[in-house]
Every structure is written in C-alpha cells, then in structure tokens.
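G.,

No rush on this.
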Amino acid sequence: MDRRGFIRSAAWFTVAGAGTMVAGCGSSDDFPPSGTYRFTHGVASGDPKEASIVFWTRCVPASGSAAVEVRLEVALDSAFRELVTAVELAAQPAHDHTVRAKLTGLVANTRYYYRFRAGQDFSPVGQSKTAPAAASTPSQMRFAWMTCQDWSINHWAAMELLAAEELDFVVHLGDYIYETVGAAFQAGAAEPAHTKITLPNGLAAGGGAVYANTVEDYRTLYRTYRGDARLQEIHRKFPMIVIWDDHEFSDDCWQDHQTYDNANRQETARRRNANQAWAEYMPVDWGDVSFDLNKSSYDNIRIYRDFRFGTLMHLVMTDERLYRDDHVVSEAAYAQLLQHDPVNGDDSVGARYFVPQPLLQQFEDRTAGSLGRRPGILGPTQTQWWKDTMKGSSATWKVWGNEVTLNRMWLDLRTQAPAPYNQLYIVNADGWDGYPSYRAELMAHLKTNNVRNVVAITGDLHAFQCGVVYDNQDPRSGTPVAVDFVSAGISSSSFYKYLRAGAGTTPLAPLVATPQTFDGVMRMQNPAFAYADHDAQGYAVATVTPAAFTVLFNKVKPLNADGSKPATPLAKRTRITLRAGSTTPQVEDNVS
C-alpha cells in the first residue's frame, strides 16, 4: 500500500511505533460506566514479524451503533506495568466496529501482552510473539495449522486441544467460515452450542440451502463463528497467519464465479462483499498486502505474502482462489457432452470430481490454446512471485501455506468396474490434480533451481494425508521435490463420508465399503502416499528444527450418538518425520 493509500485508509488500518503513548485521558469518573461497551468477539493478533505484530478486536456499544473510541495497550507483562505502547483507535460502524493496528519497532522473538479499552470496559488480555530476527538461527519453531471449521457439523473440541498446545503461532489455511447454511453436505448433527445460523439477506441455492450474498450476510457468519469461546481462545493465545480457501466466498469458487450449478455464474458484488468481511475480521498486516474498497473489480484485495523465522523457516502463503482459471473441464462443457442442462444442472461429478484423466488432458490442451498458456491456480503475477520467492529463499525449510491438495490422487478402474465406470479418474480436480501441466511447471522450477527442503502444509480435503510430490505426474519416472502434509478439517464431514454417500449402490460402493478399504486402495494406486486417513477431523502441529520437520496429526473423535461432544476428544496421534535433505517421510502411528 502506498503512502497516499495508507493516509486514505487510516481509519481502517493504523500503524504505530513502539513507544507511542496517548495523552492522559483523565480519571475513571470521566468515562461512561462499565458495561457501556462490549468486546464480545474477543481479541486477536496476527502476521508476526521480527519487529511487528497486528492486533485486532471488535468493540460495540451496548446500545446504539455509534463509533467507539478504543485504546490498544501493549506491554511486556500481563499486569501491564511494563507498557510498550498505547494507541487510540476508532471502531467504526462502516467496518462492523472492528479495529486493527500494526505495532512496529518491537523486539524480535519476544512475547507481548495486549488488551483494548473503551471507557471503563476492557477486552480479554491477549498474548502474542514476534518472529525471530532474520539473521538468527532458532533451534526450534513450533506451530499448528487448522482448516475447515464448519459451524453446522460435528463439534469444535479439536480447538480445545489446539489451544492447550505450546506454540509460536498458528496458521489457518481457509474455510474459516462456510458461506452456506442448510446445504446437503451440512445435513449432519452439530453440537448443541452451535445453533442454526440465519442469514439476513441469504439467497436460496436449492435443496434447502441458503448462501451468503451481502456483506451483512458474511459479517453474520464471522460474528457467529468468532462468538465461540474456543476459537476466541486460540486467537487470544497465539498470533495467527490466515489465508482463505473457497468457502470464505463460495464453494469451489474461481475468481468471482460460484459453482453451485453448471452456469458458474459471475458474482462480482458478492465476491467483493466476501472480501470485505474477511478483511474486517482477520488480523492481517494491510501495510504488507492491500485492500481497496474504491477499486470496483473483484480482485480489490491481495493477500498472498510470506514470513521469515530466522534462517530456520520461510513460510510462503498463497491465494489459490482469487486468480485461478476456471476448472479445466468446465461444468457447462461437460454437461453439453452428456446432453445435460448446461445452466441449471449440477455436473460437478465429471467436471470437478472423478474426472476421466483422458478428458482432463483433452480439455487442458484445448484451454491452453485459448489462454495462450496452461490453465493454472495462482495467476501469472502470483506464479512469478512464488517462483522468485522459493528460488530466493535461503532458509533451511521452505514451508508453503497451500490450500488445496498437491499430491496426485488417481483411481484406476479400467479393469475393475463395468462401463461406464471403467475409467482412470482424477478424484479431485478442484485441487492441483486438476491443473497437471501447471503443477508440473512449478515443481520443475523447484528441481531446476535446486530448491531443497520444501514442505507444503495443506487443508481443504477433510483428511489427513502425507505424500511425496514429484516434478511430473508419474512417481515412477519423476524426481521428488517436495512433501505435502494435509490436515483434516476441524469439524467438517470427512472426505470419505462424502465419497461413501456419493457412491451409493454404484460399482464404486465396494471401494468405499469402509474407511480402511478406501485408504488402502488409494495408497496402492498412488504409491507416493506415505500416510492416508480419509475419515478424520482434527488439526496438525509441526515442530521445525534444522535437522527435521516433524508433524503430529491430531485426530479427534466424532460427535457422540446423542449429539454431545466426546468427553475425551483425542482419538489418536500420528507422527511423521521428514529429515533435512530427505524426501522420504517416516511414519509412526498411534503415538503418545
């Protein structure tokens, strides 16, 4: 953001240096009485760097909707005796009474405490931590990543476990909210505390589903989700680095297009509303990226960015929705092939899921001719940024915050199923598998430039997976260049349950007879997998040292039969260790 842009948006995003102090505000008698203001959505910090952190809260008046004067206080101790700064902010109704401020001039690798004050009312006290100095070599960093926290399904007890961890920071890889309520995939039970959400201006999507449309709809979702005390505790305790996936706007979206039906309707205003609500509720460093409500296009926001943690780790966060090309096999084109309704029907199966591999190849060649390049996910500008950043990184570990599955997931039924099921399928073409030539281009870049120790931390799939990524599609002839660690969703229904429901009584049913059956088939047909559990909820924790990148997959139990959450939510832990210089993960299942 340039200086003029910053000045224009000063009420939106404030930057202050450590040591900044406001003038005395008089005695407590000068303030409105306690209870005049509310901090019902807690506090948050994010985007930790060696000398700065971003702080966030939402403060509303107990009555009315006027702007609120809010003071941010940051200290070295939880009693606020060693005050580092105090900065005046304004919680404006134009931004749903949210505020965000970046504090600069902080000391590297240092824990800070913070709180907000409005009148005589105080927010909870949060804690945060700066990144290690760029030239330092930390002996260890420990962080968690999480994804896919559908309010309407299952429970959030995984967040209780995560909040009890000892971590330097948390990464959120998207699906922080789900834009729909009442959709078919949300038909399961949720814990009683998660009551049904009503969207003030939601639009019907068929089958009883309602989807967010206006900025107030999306704000309603963020207010609801952030109202959960367990999510508030994670934000209060750890700085968070966030990116989005699809449900922050629309399921399986690309650019400003939704995919609820074959029409793939373009919805620029809706995309912009989703952008705004996300920007209002996330603790993002808007001095590093950009958000401009005055820009009329759907891409009025840029959120891809990177973070350095000394010489140990370089975290590269990408945006895999805002710039991606349409799915290679578009729903409308596939519907026309089958003589289906190319507008009102839903041919996601065949276009985005279980896509015959020869058909994908045919359409990829055709699309490359019309685009003048192979269709991709990051867009040309972000692609070059990713290549330059990965090539230029001198950190021991290059960690890629990657939203959708990078590993190959193929299913060969050519000799196992009757027609028309006797195909070689791309199981999930909404992920990198759906853009194979583009993925090969990026992975070849890693190989050509000898970029070593690359790990992807991934979400979206609703499963735990770990697998080696090659510079081409064939593990038998390719060169391993990275390892992809996929975490299951916090609460969303598992990938396996989606497949089991979709298989029904078709010849695919035996393949998903049990979770173990499906996992076994996928591992047998995709030898790059080191681990797979496709029927899971939970989160992942990474411990990073110069010698190894070690991941703990924390799987939790599902909702009890009576609708309550399990008293002891942890089901099992799986440890996967990747040694520096290696692309061979070592798996230990059921560890303590």
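When you get to it, here's the other one too:
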Amino acid sequence: MFILLLIASFLTGFCMLKKFTQIKAPIMMISGSFLLGCLFSGTLLYWMDILFVKTLNDYYISNIVYLIISAAFIIYIYKTEAKIHKDLFKVIKEFCSDKVAIICFIAFVLFSTWFNYNTFRLSDGNITISGGAWSDITFHHGFVRSISLGQNIPVEYVFYANTPAKYHFLFNYYAGKISQTGLHSVHALNLMCSLSLSFLLLMIFQFGRTVFKNDAVGILGALFLLFHSSLSGLKWIFDNWGWDIFKKIYEKTGWLAQTDFEGWGLFNLNVFVNQRHFAFSLALLVFIVTYVISLYEKETENSEPAEAKSTTPNQHNNRLWFFSSCFIGVAAGLTPYWNSVVNTALLSFLGLYTIINIRKKDIFEPMFVTTAIAGFVSLPQLMRFKSGSSSLNEYPKLHIGYELNHFDLFDLTEYYFKVLGLKLIIVVIGLLIISNRKKILFLILSIPFILANLLQLGVVLYDNNKLMISTLIFINCLAAYYLVELFKLKPFIFKIVSVALCFSLMFAGVLDLMSVKNLRKVDVADKSDFTQWIIENTEPGSVFLTLPTIQYYDNAVSNILMAGGKIYVHNAASSAYKLDERLNNLDIIFRGEKSFEKIKSIMEQEGIDYIVVSPELRESKEYKVNEEFLSQNFVTKYNNNGIAVYSIY
C-alpha cells in the first residue's frame, strides 16, 4: 500500500502544478510533483490523523481516506483539464530526452542512495548506523517508528515525552506514514531521504540552467554543495603529506570537523548524514525560488530585465495569477513544520522580492498575494514554537558575529575566508560580473546568511548553519558561473586555472566523502529481546525513564526507540526545552531518597510508565541509582541481559 501512497502523492502534486501554475520545464514539473505532493500529502495526513484519533481512536484510517481524497482530486483534474494524462507522459518523455538532465538525475539518485544506505541500513536482522550519525539518526528513526506503530498523535518528541512536538517533524512523520503502510521504517526513511537529496541536487541544476542558461553552472553548483571545501583540506594534506598520501586519503576515517577552519563541520557532508530531513526542505526552497525567477525574470539578450515587455500571468488571466499566487503562498506557508529555518529563508526571499518590484504592478500584485498568504499561514505555526515551556521563548536574540561573538569586518572576513576558502573570493568576483538585476537577486538570497550572523536562533548557536546553507546553495552557483566563464576564455591557461579552482572548491569535500565511506559502523538489534518485550507487553508510546545521555552503541535507549517507546528526558532535547525540572525528577526517582508515595506521585504526574536500569546507567558517574529501593518498592516487569524494568503497578 505504501506504493499507492507515494504514487498518489506524486500525481496529486502533478495535478496541482498543472491546475495552478504555468510551469513548462520538465525538471520543474517532475521535481515539483514530488516535493509539493509530499508537502501537501504529509500535512493533510497529519491533520486527518488528529481528527480520526480524537473521534475514532484510529491511527490507520487516515491512509485510506487520504487515498480516496487524492483519487477524487486526480479524477476531478482529469475531467476538467483536457489531456492531463497525456501531459504527464509528455513531461516524462521530455525529461527522459533531456540527456544532460537525465544523466545528472541518475547520478544524483545513485549517489544519494549509496550515501543514505552506507550510513543507515538493515543488515542481518540488525540496523547498522554510522558512528558519525548515531545520535541524530537514532532519534529521527525512533520518531518514524513511533508513527509507524501508532499512538503518537498529536505528535510528541520521542526523547522528551508528554510534550507536543513543535520543531519541524513532518518529514519524519510522512516517512512514518509510508512505513505504517507496509515499508520497513529504515527503508521508508532512506527512500524519502534519497529522493529528497536527489531532487535537491536536480533543482540546483535547474537553478543554474534558469538563471545562467548554462548546464555546467548547475552541475558545479550541485557538486560544490555536496563537496564543500574550506582551507581545512590544504591543512590536512600538509599534515599528512608523504609517499602514501593517496592511501591515507582513501582510508581517511574522521571528519575535517575538528580543524581550525571547520568548527563542527557544519557545511560538509556531515550535515546531510545527520540532518537528512534537511534536503527535502532545501529542495522546496530552491524550487520556489527558481519558480519565481522563471516566472518574473524575463531577460533580453543583454541580460537586463525587459521591464516593458514582461509577460506575467496577470496580464492575460487574472484568475490564473491569483490562484497561482495563492498556491505558492500556501506551499511556502506550510514549511515551518517541515523545516522552520527554510521557512524563514523563504519568507525573506518572497518578502524582499515583492519589495524590489513595488513599481512593477504585474510582478508586485501576485508576489504581494503570495507573500501575504505565506506569512499568514506560517505565523501560527511559528508562534507555536515559542509556546509553553519551550526554550525557544528567548530566541531569536541579537548575536552579532556568529562564532566570533563580536562584529569586526576584518575578523569576520578572515573567519569566512577560512570556512569558505577561495569560494569567498570567487563569489565576490562573480557578483561583479553579473547583470545589475542578478546582483539584486543574489543579495536577496544572501539575507539568510546575514541573519545567521546577526541573530541566534536557538540554544545551540550552530543551528544558524542551516540559514547559511540556505544561502550557500545559491552562491555556489554564482561561483560556478564565474569558473565556467573563465573556462570559456580562449587562452588555454584560463582553462587550467578554472579546472584547478573547481578542484580547490571540492577537495576538502572529497576528503570528507572518504570519511563517509569509512565511518565506524554500529549495529543495533532491530528486534532484540528487550525490544520485543516492549512491543508485546507495553502500550505503544509508553514513557520510559532511563539514563538521559547519548551512548554510541547498542543500548537500552536505542531498544526503547526501536520499539516505538518514548524517553521521559534526554539531553538531545536541550536545544528545544529547559531540562532542569525533569532532570531533577529523574535524580529524585533514581536515588530513592524520598518516600515511595512522593516518587509515585511524581511518576503519575509526569506520565512515567517504566523505570529502566541498564548497564550504562549503573556505570554512570553523573547519575546514581538505588536499585535496592526500586526492587523493594516497584514491580519488576523485566530483568534480562543486564536490563531491569520497574513499574508502579
């Protein structure tokens, strides 16, 4: 049935694009059908789940109802839009006949599939996870499992139980619904991640083709994102130079993250290994930006905007431009629950693009409608992030200079030269040689990067890197444009310089690709004895109190999450919630220094179903557990392989 769900999402997206837009480019249609189909389908499934859980206490019927609604919509479009089925086959045929695009897409799919399965896969009854991705994937996959097994509606964090999830969760939720309809959770997550990364790279290719009318720009732009290179690559070569340098490169195991120029490795492949849901929202960002540019940036042969000859939708069909603007506005407005940072980048682009076209009625009116609707739909979601006990109540707040913690133009330039390498210089040169209109566009697209250096978005400063990547995607294409233009110059020396510069912008990224290949692997039992006991003997979504820290090996926490359970408190929640009160409750219960009635009252009030004492908890120096107190006052529900589970009843 999961195949029907995916097909329905894609066809729904395609029908929406045909009904509400005038997109002709096959890449835009194929990519948009997947991205917008998943966006609207996943959001609708979530709200239907809430409805049916409240009214019928059913966690599965939404899948059936969604397929019925989707089928009805597709049939309606088929009846009202002549030859839409032929249009679909025509788009697919044109896409397949675009040799450069299809070769790139196949390469992107192959790379993305290898990339995701190399770091997270099923293996002989176990789930194998790369050590460099352990902490993030454990919790992402745990959330997917909680959805696929049911009883996590309205959604809660699996690592901070009994608290509504506010930060972006719909990508993993949609993957959970795919798993719920028949596909193993590992395959469901990897499928969505692989397709998302593939379409992100394909949309970057299309952005280069749309803005610079050059396929090579788009290809290089995609490569520059995957293989971001700071000066850390040169430093690594200097430190490891020798006769066996190529052997060292091939066998390299660690990220370049811990070098002077990489900080936490926030711009390399490490991002997509851990935050693998991020690619989907980035692809949406590039899609909407490219759609707006292709619709309104009509250029003459001299690469200047033809203001007087601009032909936008409202000049020939007022109804079409209005519905098209509403459609894109709603799509942009639905992104906070998929990724709130990308939503910020989208709103900044739409708003500023509207402002710079205030004197052009044919552009300003539809863009104003789009921006207003996007803001109106986004606002209640963004406000919800700051409600309750969320630590985000205090953010965003002024924080100038990112890691430098101060504003100094020289220091900031030096810092980003180390982080971006020669790309910084190349981007500046590229900005100088493009048309004035394009200069304005790229300055608008740079606003997320500027915001990341003015504000702190949350508890963890390094979350700002997501805003920076939202800009990096586009300036990569600007750097690629300059290098392609340099390659076109007649003196052969310029071609050599161009190729050398391209290599320099990817070298550190290639080193990190070797790290992805060689990352240490950790096996987690997909169906351990403890996991099976949880599934068979506890209610889905039960809350477990155990050691609240990350352990990079198979342990009780990973077993609980594999079974669809939730952790009462875990330090992974520190970026979204204030943990002091829950950690204090944890300490009281573990130490057993209060009366049993007091501890029982805390557990009932906090909704804690089970206490789990594991080997790693016993060995912890930070958290002390009084097992004698627990065994004397609680009912022992499970005791095997060093794991003991206690319950009040």
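The longest strand covers residues 635-640. The first helix runs from residue 2 to 20.

Enjoy the weekend,
O.
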